[in-house]
Amino acid sequence: MKFQFTYLNIAACLLLFVVGAMAQAEQRSPESSYEITLSVLSGSNDAAQKGDLPQSLALIAKQLRSSFGLTNLRLADTYVGRIGNGGNINYKSLANIDSPSQPETPSFLDWTITGLRNASNPNSFFMQAFRFGARVPVRVGAGTDPNGRPLSSIQYESIGLNVDRLTVGENTPVLIGTIALPKADGGRVFLVLNVSPTAN
Description:
This protein has 200 residues and is α+β, with helices and mostly antiparallel strands. The chain has helices at 7-27, 58-68; strands at residues 33-44, 72-84, 87-95, 107-118, 124-144, 150-169, 174-180, 188-198. The chain has one domain. The protein is 16% helix and 52% strand. It has a 4-stranded antiparallel β-sheet. It has a 4-stranded antiparallel β-sheet with strand order 3-4-5-6, with no helix packed on it. A hairpin with a 5-residue loop joins β4 and β5.
């Protein structure tokens, strides 16, 4: 016996299709969101630059002191943002990376994360790119005054770091890179990133 499609059969099929699609839509979880924390650490051998670090950065700090032979590390600043799966974040701000005692010469920061999403490995995240740029003050000599005392002026120099395609663990602060500061004592900036899932 041949099966013949009637208008009733077609309507029933369409109804089943629509109901199934609606059920699937109801079962979908909300889009995931993540909290991004970028910690900017300043390291040097200048005793005046010593500062306390949060406990969450203790392991990273131990590794940095051992690897770079720096006596002092301080937290220059912490930046927090929130993005959805596959999203981007672009952050511009001020900071005193070089010297917290000279607020009249701040540093200008600009950092970006693009394409953050769940990685193929469990409990890890992939990002298409991480960009960090800063303009930091540099004191340069400018001769002497009429009394023979040295004069100096401030000019700004650009520093930065670009990384394409990287994976980081969940709730695990990781060192993304280092940047040398234009200082005579071997000062450096360390960029530490942490990614955490957040409730929607």
